[in-house]
């Protein structure tokens, strides 16, 4: 995201460009993993308040002005957010749509929408609650309290923290590691993990087992196990 003068405020144009870019990246077989980032010091400071100011209820409802927002959460390919600095409001929600969140030491996560007389609208009450639980979510949403990178790590919102200089490099290193795996198994695994938020344990375990069985229909499963047994490095084809 690259609107540094507006702290990467997520305006309609940025969100529709992001959605169409994600369509292109998903369609490109050369692309295995998607990393989303901003600049040093700012991931995104939320939805564009100046753009939202004149809007009224009937218009936002009829336009469905959030319709492009969920595109990132519907990516089949793995997604990684590299968060430097502010991830506020819609910025925090956008990071939470990704599969993995890495942050730099100066990262700040918050859902300050109530301070603007509104409330989170793209996952700040739902994904956040599933990630960090009700108590932390309520405090963040109801008071606008922001989490530092260390707090976000302790709360389970993010998986790792790096110095600002190495954040993107580390994110790309992880992306490259995932890119070497079987793209088919990666998609199935991502589906299974995401299903954990939607299903009961017994249904989720059955779903996971069925997806696991389905990997036995792939060449990659044979390639991976064969390489292990013969002490070789596997090259996966996605087939
Ligand atoms: N929208 C529009 N412009 C913004 C935003 C924003 N969210 N954030 C910053 N800017 C602009 C500022 O207005 C300023 O512009 P200008 O130079 O024209 O005055 C410029 O960016 C630089 O910002 P600051 O001068 O404020 O920079 P600071 O370093 O002093 O502060 C902060 C940085 C702390 C990030 C501060 O700008 C801030 O608090 N921003 C707003 C954070 C916020 O409230 N975010 C929530 C927005 S609401 C939301 O995200 C709802 C999501 C609901 C789902 C999706 C709906 C579409």
Textual characterization of the structure:
Helix content is 45%, strand content 12%. It has 239 residues and is an alpha/beta fold. It has a four-stranded parallel β-sheet, sandwiched between helices. The protein has two domains: 4-178, 2-enoyl-CoA Hydratase, Chain A, domain 1, CATH 3.90.226; 182-230, Lyase 2-enoyl-coa Hydratase, Chain  A, domain 2 (Orthogonal Bundle). The protein starts with 11 loop residues before the first helix and ends in a 10-residue tail after the last helix. It has helices spanning 12-27, 49-52, 57-63, 90-96, 127-132, 134-143, 149-155, 167-179, 183-195, 201-214, 219-229, and strands at 34-37, 42-44, 79-83, 86-88, 100-104, 108-110, 147-148, 160-162. It binds octanoyl-coenzyme A. One of its GO terms (cellular component) is mitochondrion.
How much of the residues is beta strand, in percent?
Answer: 5-15%
- Which percent range fits the helix content? 40-55%
* Name of the CATH class of the largest domain: Alpha Beta
Question: Could you tell me the mean pLDDT?
Answer: 97
Strand order of the largest sheet: 1-3-5-8
CATH architectural designation of the largest domain: Alpha-Beta Complex
Main sheet record:
4 strands, parallel
The SS-based structural class is: alpha/beta
Tally the structural domains.
2
GO molecular function: enoyl-CoA hydratase activity
Protein name: enoyl-CoA hydratase
EC number: 4.2.1.17
Keywords: Lyase
């Amino acid at each position: 995201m690259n609107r540094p003068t507006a702290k990467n405020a997520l305006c309609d144009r940025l969100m529709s460009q992001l959605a169409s870019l994600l369509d292109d990246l998903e369609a490109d077989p050369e692309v295995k993993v998607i990393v989303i980032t901003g600049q040093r010091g700012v991931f995104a400071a939320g939805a564009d308040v100046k753009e939202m100011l004149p809007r009224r209820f009937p218009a936002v409802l009829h336009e469905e002005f959030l319709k492009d927002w969920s595109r990132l959460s519907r990516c089949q390919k793995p997604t990684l957010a590299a968060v430097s600095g502010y991830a506020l409001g819609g910025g925090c929600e956008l990071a939470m749509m990704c599969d993995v969140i890495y942050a730099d030491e100066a990262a700040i996560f918050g859902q300050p929408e109530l301070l603007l007389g509104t409330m989170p609208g793209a996952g700040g009450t739902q994904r956040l609650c599933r990630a960090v639980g009700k108590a932390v979510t309520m405090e963040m949403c109801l008071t606008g309290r922001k989490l530092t990178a260390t707090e976000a790590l302790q709360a389970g919102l993010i998986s790792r923290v790096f110095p600002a200089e190495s954040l993107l490099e580390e994110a790309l290193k992880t992306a490259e590691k995932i890119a070497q795996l079987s793209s088919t198994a990666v998609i199935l695994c991502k589906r299974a993990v995401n299903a954990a938020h939607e299903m009961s344990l017994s249904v989720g375990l059955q779903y996971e087992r069925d997806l696991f069985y389905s990997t036995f229909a792939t060449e990659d499963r044979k390639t991976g196990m064969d390489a292990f047994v013969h002490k070789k490095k596997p090259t996966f084809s996605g087939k």
